[in-house]
Amino acid sequence: MYALLLSIIYIAFISLGLPDSLVGSGWPAMQADLGVPLWFAGFITMIIAGGTIVSSLMSERLTRRLGVGLITTISVGMTAAALIGFSFSGSFWMLCLWAIPYGLGAGAVDAALNNYVALHYAAKHMNWLHSFWGVGASISPFIMGYAISSGAGWSSAYQTVGVVQVVLVAFLFLSLSLWRRGPHARQNIREVESDAETEAPSAGHVPLSAALRIPGVTLILGAFFAYCAIESTTILWASTYLVTERGIDASVAATFAALFLLGITAGRFLSGFVADRLGDKALIRGGFLANALGITMIALPMPTDVLALAGLVIAGLGSAPIYPAIIHSTPKNFGANNSQAIIGIQMAAAYSGSTFMPPLFGALSSQIGMWIFPFYLALLVLLGMVLSERLNHRAARGELAAASREL
To answer: Are the beta carbons of 120 and 183 closer than 8 angstroms?
Structure first.
């Protein structure tokens, strides 16, 4: 039963990644068909992000009331309905309407599944599961590309991914009993890492205000915000920087920008083999240090571009373990009773960083110049490292564990 449930969770993480690249990869064709300006894509992504942030903050209360299995099933069902709704949308306002359940479904399932895995599975699975998210995010552009090139149109891609989500909903519904038995089964497989993770979460609701008062929570929220800002800003602007500031051919720049994302996916897969041995703290620290090295290589004014291109790949590999390690360390740092509430807030912080920091860089670079790209990233890396190390010092002094017991 343990293996079957874990297999379903892996499939669910692929499914989580599938919709994430559809809007970006399909927007040129969608924009032309709908007859709206190119920049209108921002309205859709902002609505999705807003819904995701709201549902992430609500995830603790909903998960305690409905259970992880049911909230995952409902959330994936909402996403499936939204994707199929996208496929039948003939006007821009309909896309905006369907973007609401799209975002609401994504945030709740992300927070619920991440907390469940953090509580019940070893660090290696957290890394591999997020690698599988990358597989899903990498597949969907190919689905969109095939749909457009075959003449079926962008709506066919949304319909295809929506049907995949519907099939997953059926599997999730049939597996509801497995989710309820999961916490008891995990005591026999001995994959947890600390006493904090072996405690069953209580039924008591942890209000947002109470969660934010827990010592160290604001530190990890800031570090998570910084990391997700690094990732999303690099994905969006790296290619433009390489072309405009380094004079690199657009096709080469696009390839290496894509390698940053592939580096994250591959890096998470590789991190899974060492995660249990190194521990979350070392993975987060090493990830930020590798990020710093990669960004330094990008910034150095060398006559060859090889160093900058290699730095982009190294930054991607360094980024790989940070997200899963932050999530997986949450029950250990703050207690199993508080982890669902805190992970929900972490998801909101993550989406806030991903949503607002790339446009901020765009606005700054338009006024100052694209040359600030590596320095902008460097400030975010410094912020993430400082906050995560401050959290480590507080954990070493026992402040986090003491606060968890008091709540």
So the answer is: yes
Q: Measure Cα distances from 214 to 227, 335, 405, 406 in Å.
A: 21, 11, 11, 10
Measured N-to-C along each axis, helices 336-368 and 41-66 cross at an angle, to the nearest 10 degrees, of 170
Residues 182 and 120: beta-carbon distance below 8 Å: yes
Domain 2-188: state its class: mainly alpha
331, 282 Cβ separation under 8 angstroms: no
How many beta carbons lie within 10 A of that of residue 275, not counting itself?
25
Q: Is residue 66 packed enough to be buried (19+ CB in 10 Å), middle (13-18) or exposed (0-12)?
A: middle
Token duo for residue 334: 């703050």
Tokens of 360: 């901020």
- What single letter denotes the amino acid at residue 384? G
> Hey, where are the domains in the chain?
2-188, 211-406
Q: Is 24 exposed, middle or buried (0-12, 13-18, 19+ CB in 10 A)?
A: middle
For 140-190, how does the pLDDT look when each residue is reduced to its tens digit (9 = 90+)? 878 888 888 888 888 999 999 999 999 988 988 888 887 766 544 444 333
Tokens at 120, concatenated: 């019940």
- Pair of tokens at residue 202: 């209580």
Cα angle 394, 396, 401 (rounded to 5 degrees) comes to: 75
pLDDT digits (tens, 9 = 90+) for 359-372: 888 889 888 988 99
- Residue 231: partners with Cβ closer than 8 Å, 6 or more residues away: 264, 319, 323, 354
Q: Which CATH architecture has domain 211-406?
A: Up-down Bundle (1.20)
pTM strictly above 0.85 = no
